[in-house]
């Protein structure tokens, strides 16, 4: 998203709409359709999973490897150690960066380090829940956290074509049991683009 003209609600909303309108079309081949076994009566074609091994909402950015990595020959295959930025929205808000760095010392050894901002650990005061913040915003008349009608329309214009395709092709979701990481095919999708699903739990807990 480009920097808005100001921090006023309408200026921020304008930039959010621009992002949605410039986004590439969603392709069915780049989606994983899964469904929790106990919820087979209520179909849901979303990018969210129910009854998975953890409850969280986060954004993960995995940085691409430089072609012809000079370190691979000497230090083995480094493609499995990906620099990654993670923004956890809920629960337990955190910003986490995993980077490959040179370990201290005279030798040449690479290590993987974590730069972590865990809000509960950094700030001692109580952090309101996401819905508490929304209710407070309503009371205060703060509209920056809420979407405008044209933003809603732009979002639906992205998903409507692929939802229609799912209906026309009668795509059957992959069912998965309670407590796992979601559909197995999601890992094949990640492998196709040389990325992997990660877990912040061991880093911030």
Structure in words:
With 205 residues, the protein is an alpha+beta fold. Helix content is 32%, strand content 18%. The protein is built from 7 helices and 6 strands. The chain has a 4-stranded antiparallel β-sheet. A two-stranded parallel ribbon has the order 1-6. The model is unreliable at 39-52 and 200-205 (pLDDT under 50).
What percent strand?
15-25%
The share of residues in helices is: 25-40%
> What is the average of the pLDDT values?
76
* Count of alpha/pi helices: 7
Radius of gyration: 21 Å
Q: Which strand order do you get reading across the main beta sheet?
A: 2-3-4-5
- Output the helix-strand order: HEEHEEEHHHEHH
Query: Which sheet architecture does the biggest sheet show?
Result: 4 strands, antiparallel
List keywords for this structure.
205 residues, alpha+beta, four-stranded antiparallel β-sheet, two-stranded parallel ribbon, 7 helices, 6 strands, 32% helix, globular, disordered C terminus
């Amino acid at each position: 998203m480009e920097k808005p003209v100001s921090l006023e609600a309408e200026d921020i909303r304008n930039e959010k709409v621009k992002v949605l309108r410039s986004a590439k079309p969603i392709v069915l081949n780049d989606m994983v359709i899964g469904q929790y076994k106990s919820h087979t009566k209520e179909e849901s074609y979303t990018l969210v999973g129910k009854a998975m091994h953890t409850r969280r909402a986060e954004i993960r950015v995995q940085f691409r490897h430089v072609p012809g990595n000079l370190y691979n020959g000497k230090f083995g295959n480094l493609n499995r150690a990906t620099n990654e930025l993670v923004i956890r929205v809920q629960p337990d808000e955190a910003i986490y960066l995993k980077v490959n760095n040179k370990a201290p010392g005279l030798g040449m050894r690479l290590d993987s380090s974590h730069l972590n901002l865990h809000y509960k650990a950094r700030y001692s005061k109580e952090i309101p829940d996401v819905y508490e913040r929304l209710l407070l915003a309503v009371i205060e008349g703060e509209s920056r956290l809420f979407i405008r009608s044209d933003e809603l329309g732009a979002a639906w214009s992205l998903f409507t074509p692929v939802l229609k395709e799912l209906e026309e092709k009668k795509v059957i979701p992959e069912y998965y049991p309670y407590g796992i990481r979601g559909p197995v095919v999601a890992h094949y999708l990640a492998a196709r683009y040389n990325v992997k699903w990660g877990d912040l739990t061991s880093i911030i807990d």
